[in-house]
Structure formats: C-alpha cells, structure tokens
Amino acid sequence: GRARLSRWDGRGVEEEEAEEEWHQLYPGHIPTSPLQKALLAAGSAVMALYDPYRHDMVAVLGETTGCLALPNLRDKMKRHPEGHRILQERPRIRLSTLDMARLRGLPDGSLGREYVRFLEDNKVSPDTRMPPKFVDDEELAYVIQRYREVHDLMHTLLGMPTNMLGEVVVKWFEAVQTGLPMCVLGAAFGPVRLSARKLQVLATELVPWAIRSGRNASCVLNVYYEQRWEQPVESLREEIGIFPPP
Amino acid sequence: AVRLCRWRPLLSRPLGAPRALRGLAAGPEMHFGFQTVTEAERREKINQVFESVAKKYDVMNDSMTLGIHRLWKDVLIHKMNPSPDTLLLDVAGGTGDIAFRFINYVRSVRERQLQRRLKHHQNLSWQEIFESYQEDKSNSLGDSQVVVCDINREMLKVGKQKAQHLGYSKGLSWVLGNAEELPFDDDKFDVYTIAFGIRNVTRIDLALQEAHRVLKPGGRFLCLEFSHVSNPFLSRLYDLYSFQVIPVLGEIIAGDWKSYQYLVESIRQFPPQEELKEMIEDAGFFKVDYENLNFGIVAIHSGFKL
C-alpha cells in the first residue's frame, strides 16, 4: 500500500485504496486475517471445552478450521444432482419457512412427523443455529449453514436425543461424514464429561454403529430434506445408508 | 470459483478525519470507529456497544490489557492525591473502578491522619480515645464524596452491583447523565475525572465545557484515555496487538467481535496528546498538561479551572 501521511496534521490525508476496502461477502461476515483465524481457532477450542454452554465457540471453531473440509463438502454437493440443486436453491430450515402444522399432521414414522416430534421432545428450535461469520466464501458459508441446520435432522435420522451422549454420537457420525475438524474434536473430547456407564455404552455400541453408518451412508448434505417430509424415516435411512440404531 | 475475501490489511485506515469530525462543532457526519455515520447513529451505536459489553466489561479490560489498566487507574488516583474532603465527579464512571480507588485512597489517608493524631495525644484517657475512634469510624471518608455519572444504564447497574459486592456504600452516589449535558449545578466539584470515557463522547468540546462548568474555581480536570504512540516500532507492535488480538479476545470472551473492533478503531480516531491538550485549553482550563503512560498507549491530561 502507499505510505500514509499522518491524519492529524490536517493536510496530508490519504484515501483508502479501493481494492483494500473491507467488504462483507454476506450479511454477518467478518473478514479475518490468517493470524486472527488461528487465534480464534485456538481460543474457541479452549473456551468450548471450558464452558460447554458456549455454543457460539463451537460454531467459531468449525468455521475457522473448516478450510479443507468445507470445499470438499461443497464439491461433493456439486457433483450430486440433489446436492447441486440445494446449492442452487439454498433452502433454509427455519421456523418461519417450515409449516409446522402440516408436518405435525403427517403420519407417524414420516420424516416430517418425527422431526417435529424431536424438536418438541427436546425443546429445541432450528432457529438457534449460529449464522456463519468467519468463512471467507459465501458459498462455503452456505454449506456450513446447511450443515448446522441439518444437524437436528441428523438427530432424527439417528434417533439420538440432545443430551450429551446423543450429541456425542451424532458428532461421531458427522465427523466421519464431513471431516470437519470441529466434529472430530467434539467427538473426541465430548465424552470427557460422561459417566463411566455411559462411556461404556458409547464405546461398545453407539460409536461403532455411528462410524459404520457414517462410512456407509452417502453424503447427508446431498439430501433435499424439505422435499421429503412425507417419506418414512426408515425408508430414508435405507436410502442414505444409515444402519438402524441400536 | 472460490471468491476469497481480502481481509483488511493490518494498517489500513479510512479517510482521515478533519477537525470537524473529531467531536468539535460537528457536521452531520461522524466517525464510529472507522465507519462514517450520522451523529444520531453514532450515539445509538455507542449505546449499544456499552449495553452489550457491560457485564463483561471488567473481564475484558483485564484480558485486553493483561491487568495493566488497574495500574493506569492507580496512577490517576495518585496523581489526583485527594484529601478527605474532596468531592469527586467521575464521568463515564460506569463500573466504578475510579470511584472505588478514590474511596480506598481517601480512607487510607484518613487512617494515617487518625494515627498521627493519636500519636500526638499520648496522655488521653481511655474514654477519650474510645470517643475519637467512634467519631472517626462513622466518618471514615471524611466529608468525601464521589458521584459516579454514566450515560448507560447497564454500566451503572454493573457498577452498583460491584459496589454492593465489594462493600462500598458510604459517600458514593450513582447518577445517570450525559457528559455533554451534566445534571449538576455550576461550581460544584473539586475534581472531575473521565477515565476511558471521553473517547466515546460524541461532542468532546461540549463535554469539556461541561467539565469546566461543574468544577469549583481551583478545581481539577483529569482525563485518562488511550492516546497516540509516537515510537514507530512500538506503534506497529501496538497496532498488531490491537487489530489482530483484541477483537479475537472480544469474540472468545464476550462473544462480541464488533464492540471490540469498535474499541480499537475508536482509539485510532481519537485526538493525540497535543491536540487534546489544545481542546482542553479551549474549554477554559489552565495549566493544562499531560503525562504519557506506557509510551503513549495511555495518557493522563490535567487542567485547572481558575
């Protein structure tokens, strides 16, 4: 850049060069330098372990460490017809876009009905997903957003509740599926806070199943869930390649 | 194609600010950090920043300055050297750091006075000694008082909670008010302080005029604020730390990148030492001087109303 004269002498004022302008790629985007990303990754990892209620830190960790996994995921989506359509149409899963009444009215065992049941049983909402901030590509920002919004559907498909145990199982599945370092870290460190009994169930049954399913299944981001609410969960599981839960 | 966004280069700056935009008789456009906003927008944005940071304000100060802000505030109080009958107005005093230090200082001065008096009265009866203790215990602050004034309710709330928690109650009052238009009469206070607050004032000239108004003749104006590091090497290091680390700390600790980005930008936008000195003189203060702390990262400006 050009040398800048001091602003305070009132005379020599240098204008900002146009191409150095700070610009947002998408609403909520905060551009960061490589150093800042590294600091954020380290800091968010520590904070997420220290205070598990800081979901925003898990989100930040995912964004700052996903620079290899996210393009990978995006390419997988591009190569698949349904995934490609999702990338084009950019559907969002939000309470305002879901017709909850209709989904509730669907037959038991259908994706829509079970998804709504899951949301109500666990008292969660799809609107609490953090929007991405530190991803420096707006298409990849959408990919990570989609991954976050589809997380609850993962719970539904895997039949796992939102307690610590259930979350860890889903993380293992997601780690195998997406390769996101945040999932790998979550899967590895999540169990730290579990009781011995739960750890045993986790290690002997749930994790092996999650890994096998994750490996066997096609990419879960390539499923246009919004167009499959009527499909029975079991049929969708089979189609994707998720083994029935233990 | 992957569109990589260019992150803002380390030392890039927006347009320099002509005097009009630096808190003097301002036109409609002002700075909010490196953004250009209207005066009304600026007030609102700053209000939001402090509402958002209030609860984590102290934690963040410790993290960002590695605890050094405590030393800076200690220096301010020592420079002030208040006596037990000083009436202090601490503007933008939010979470009470200056007020509490003031009270501690005055208490210890009073105790030393008491001890000296007792030493001179070696032949008092026990009754007389007992009575003098009683009288001084109820008056441990002397006639001192500190009024903490802040424009932001959340900050005052945190300050009051802290006071309760730490056991400060006597001689301390909390007032919601605007530095540009103080809710106090003329010629009221012995000392006026504003620590890390004047940077967020939209019309600095008005705040300085108000400071002059509410001080008694002979009263002292003290301003503790981030300032300009002239040493080029240190300046680069300081910039690096400010722009690369502080917003990250804000995100990690407080979940709030933007407020801390604003903070480091507002520091760069603030007038440097000499210019602030001139502004203080313009408001009618005499014997205006400043002292740099840590190579100018922080400066204490002082002036007297005659």
UniProtKB/TrEMBL annotation, chain A:
It comes from the Eukaryota. GO terms for molecular function: lyase activity. GO terms for biological process: ubiquinone biosynthetic process. InterPro entries: Coq4 (IPR007715), Coq4_euk (IPR027540). The keyword Lyase applies. It holds the Pfam family Coq4. One of its GO terms (cellular component) is mitochondrial inner membrane. Keywords: Lyase, Membrane, Mitochondrion, Mitochondrion inner membrane, Ubiquinone biosynthesis. This is 4-hydroxy-3-methoxy-5-polyprenylbenzoate decarboxylase. The gene is Coq4.
UniProtKB/TrEMBL annotation, chain B:
One of its GO terms (molecular function) is 2-methoxy-6-polyprenyl-1,4-benzoquinol methyltransferase activity. This is COQ5 protein. Methyltransferase required for the conversion of 2-decaprenyl-6-methoxy-1,4-benzoquinol (DDMQH2) to 2-decaprenyl-3-methyl-6-methoxy-1,4-benzoquinol (DMQH2). HAMAP family: MenG_UbiE_methyltr (MF_01813). It comes from the Eukaryota. Gene3D superfamilies: Vaccinia Virus protein VP39 (3.40.50.150). PANTHER family: 2-METHOXY-6-POLYPRENYL-1,4-BENZOQUINOL METHYLASE, MITOCHONDRIAL, METHYLTRANSFERASE. InterPro entries: SAM-dependent_MTases_sf, UbiE/COQ5_MeTrFase, UbiE/COQ5_MeTrFase_CS. The keyword Methyltransferase applies. GO terms for biological process: methylation. Keywords: Methyltransferase, S-adenosyl-L-methionine, Transferase, Ubiquinone biosynthesis. NCBIfam families: MenG_MenH_UbiE. Component of a multi-subunit COQ enzyme complex, composed of at least COQ3, COQ4, COQ5, COQ6, COQ7 and COQ9. Interacts with PYURF; the interaction is direct, stabilizes COQ5 protein and associates PYURF with COQ enzyme complex.
